[in-house]
Every structure is written in C-alpha cells, then in structure tokens.
C-alpha cells in the first residue's frame, strides 16, 4: 500500500488508527518458509502476543501457520479463529497450575518452563505430552527487557538443571515430546543463535520421544532505510543443515519450529496520528499528535525507534522536530528527528507499527484505544472499531455514593 491509501484511510476512519498490510505479512511468512525449505518438517507458530486481532489470526491460519500463545485467552482466540488445538503451543510464565490444566483440557500443546509446575503436572497428567522450555544462558536481544535467555532471566529451566528435569520425568513417567528455547528479540548475530541451538541439540539427546524442537524467534527487522536486520536466508541455510544432521543422529525426522511474531507483522503495520499543535519553544519545535504512550508505548518502554514520516507534506523542507503525545506525562515518540515540514492538521505515519503496538495499548487518561484496519486485496477492512465512552464504562459498576455532610471537611 502507498501513502495515498493511508491518507484516504485517515480521512475516512479518523485518527489515530492502526493499518496493517496483509501482503507484507504474506511475503514475510513466505520468506521465512523459503529460508528453511531444506527441512522436511517446518512449523511456524505465529506469536499471538505481537498482534492478536482475530482477523490477523485468521490470516495466519490461511497461510498454514500454527500459534504460539502465552495465556489461556490467546489459546481461546486461536480456537475462535479456526485453529485446531494441536496447532497451538502454550508457553506461559508464572501462571497457576489451574490455568495450565484448563489449557490442557482444550487440547493445546503444553510447554512448561519451571521445575515445580513440571513435577506437579507430570504427576497428575503423565499421559499428556509436554514440551520443556530450556534457558540456554545465552544473552541475545536488543534490549534488556526483551532478552530472555540469559542466566538471570525468569524464563525457562536452566540447562544446569537438566538432571532435575530427568529425575522428574523418570519419577512421573511423563512424555516429553518437545524441547524449546527463546533467547530474546532483535537478534542480529546468527552465530550466537547457532551457538544456543547447539545447546538445545545437546539437551534434546536426553529425551527419546521428541516430535519437535522449537528454536523460538526474535529475528530483527529493519526500522529505517538501510537498517540492519537478521539475515534469515543465511540462518536458514546454516541451521537447516545442522538440524538435518541432528535428525540423522537422533534416528528420525523431527519438526523444526519457530515462533515468529515481530518478523511477520512489524513491517506490515502503520500507525497514523494527526498533528494537533506545532509548538515552538526556545530550543525545540514540538509536533504534538492526537496520541501518546497509551497507544504506542514501545519508544518509551524499549527506546525503540519508529520511522516517522509526514505523509501529508512529503515534499516539504526537512526540519527537526520532537514528536510528542497528548498524555499528561512525558510521552516522547522522537527527539530532534528530521522530518518534512510539519503543519497543524498533517498526518504523521509511524512505520513498523504492527508488532507490540496495539496489543500494548491502554486506556490511560481515559483515552479510547484506536481503530484497526486490515488492507487486503487493495481494500480497507475495519477489523476493530474505535472505542467510545461506553467501552470505558462497560465493566465499571455504578453504586450509590452518599457522604454525610458532617464528614466532609
């Protein structure tokens, strides 16, 4: 889709608004599938937490993906979107045994990341196949908040605790059908990923009934022209060769699984915001938009840089702006960013707004969450309505409050 299409959407549906290009998602899915074409059995489990609109899940289902979920709610969304339970893997962290039991009853693949739950679940349900999430103690990822495989991470069972895992498996007689890891997001160094993979292969040798090995994801996408990204083609070539070698050593073909989220949907997303005010101070020109970290928190939470373009005035002279929101706290999207001249009423487009953007939105300041559009077959399809005051009040209960006057000072 082009900027003219985005402007038309902003005019028709208003702003702020999220727009997702289906063709980009399809191309990314095919790119990843092609990179691992040498593998006999490949499963791409889309990470629902990246973008969980049920229509996006339906698109992933059409592509043949599985789902990577982290909550029972995401599992239920997947089932509603048409996924069969066996194509859904459930990888929670710190949830109750009760929730895991409820998901198991739905038929999804269980993935357990701590010894306590592993022993409890295995003791009660030894016949239900379980995947184990390993922490390889490999530091990878572009930010400490999204690096999850290091030694101090709350995620996964330490590789140094393999003997404990084996004792639990032996005592309970449970069936381990998968091994999993996830080192973090925004992985650049393929050698680090391959090193962690060797740890996973070594761990897998301890389990004789494996059906799949899940290597997580976290592939970096470019955030601006010329930006670096994970070389998926090189990784596909090198890891496929090593995976096929391992399958021969293991004695049978296994499924190679990934759980891409950002890689599939990040570049497909565009966030459109209207410029309410251009404010000149003694040192800065602020472009104040009709949004804030209640809609797009990644720049404030992760320090992520989303390319910002003035699609209303693409030929204007470039100037330096700090793009900020309307929240009653500091909510800076960009500091001193070179952007084509911004005028009040212009539409700014934030690129790479498909992953961990709407899904992390809130009603802070009692603001409404924005609408979502899927651009499919050269048409805009409304896949989420803009919220109203009724949505803000929907789950609030109205009680009768009457304070005695003498208690009021």
UniProtKB/TrEMBL annotation:
Names of the cofactor(s): pyridoxal 5'-phosphate
Gene3D superfamilies: Alanine racemase, Lyase, Ornithine Decarboxylase, Chain A, domain 1
Binding site for pyridoxal 5'-phosphate: 218, 356
Residues that, per the record, bind substrate: 298, 302, 329, 356
Keyword terms of this UniProt record: Amino-acid biosynthesis, Decarboxylase, Lyase, Lysine biosynthesis, Pyridoxal phosphate
Enzyme class: lyase
Gene Ontology molecular function: diaminopimelate decarboxylase activity
Domain of life from the UniProt record: Bacteria
Domain Orn/DAP/Arg decarboxylase 2 N-terminal per the UniProt entry, residue ranges: 24-266
Keyword Lyase: yes
Pathway linked to the protein: Amino-acid biosynthesis; L-lysine biosynthesis via DAP pathway; L-lysine from DL-2,6-diaminopimelate: step 1/1
Catalytic activity entry: meso-2,6-diaminopimelate + H(+) = L-lysine + CO2
Pfam family, one: Orn_DAP_Arg_deC
Domain Orn/DAP/Arg decarboxylase 2 C-terminal: 18-354
Protein's job: Specifically catalyzes the decarboxylation of meso-diaminopimelate (meso-DAP) to L-lysine.
Protein name: Diaminopimelate decarboxylase
């Amino acid at each position: 889709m082009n900027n003219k299409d985005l402007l038309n959407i902003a005019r028709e549906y208003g702003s702020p608004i999220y727009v997702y290009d289906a063709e980009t998602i399809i191309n990314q899915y095919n790119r990843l599938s092609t990179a691992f074409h040498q593998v006999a059995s490949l499963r791409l489990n889309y990470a629902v937490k990246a973008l969980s609109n049920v229509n996006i899940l339906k698109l992933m289902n059409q592509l043949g993906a599985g789902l990577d979920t982290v909550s029972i709610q995401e599992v239920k969304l997947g089932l509603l979107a048409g996924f069969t339970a066996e194509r859904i893997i459930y990888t929670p962290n710190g949830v109750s045994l009760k929730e895991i039991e409820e998901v198991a009853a739905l038929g999804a693949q269980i993935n357990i990341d701590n010894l306590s739950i592993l022993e409890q679940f295995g003791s009660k349900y030894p016949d239900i196949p379980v995947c184990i999430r390993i922490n390889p103690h490999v530091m990878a990822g572009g930010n400490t908040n999204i690096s999850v495989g290091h030694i101090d991470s709350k995620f996964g069972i330490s590789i140094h605790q393999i003997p404990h895992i084996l004792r639990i498996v032996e005592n309970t007689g449970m069936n381990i059908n998968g091994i999993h890891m996830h080192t973090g997001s925004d992985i650049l160094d393929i050698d680090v990923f391959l090193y962690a993979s060797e740890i996973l292969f070594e761990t897998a040798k301890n389990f004789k009934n494996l059906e799949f090995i899940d290597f997580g994801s976290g592939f970096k996408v470019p955030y601006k022209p010329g930006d670096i990204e994970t070389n998926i083609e090189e990784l596909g070539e090198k890891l496929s060769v090593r995976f096929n070698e391992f399958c021969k050593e293991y004695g049978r073909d296994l499924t190679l699984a990934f759980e891409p989220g950002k890689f599939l949907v990040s570049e497909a997303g565009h966030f459109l915001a209207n410029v309410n005010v251009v404010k000149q101070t003694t040192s800065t020109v602020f472009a104040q938009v009709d949004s804030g970290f209640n809609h797009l928190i990644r720049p404030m939470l992760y320090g992520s840089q989303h390319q910002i373009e003035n699609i209303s005035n693409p030929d204007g002279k470039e100037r330096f702006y700090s793009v900020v929101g309307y929240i009653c706290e500091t909510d800076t999207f960009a500091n001193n960013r070179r952007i084509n001249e911004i005028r009040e009423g212009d539409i700014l487009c934030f690129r790479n707004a498909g992953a961990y953007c709407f899904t992390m939105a809130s009603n802070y300041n009692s603001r409404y969450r924005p609408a979502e559009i899927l651009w499919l077959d050269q048409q805009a399809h409304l896949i989420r309505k803009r919220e109203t005051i009724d949505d803000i009040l929907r789950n609030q209960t109205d009680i009768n409050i009457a304070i005695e006057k003498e208690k009021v000072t």
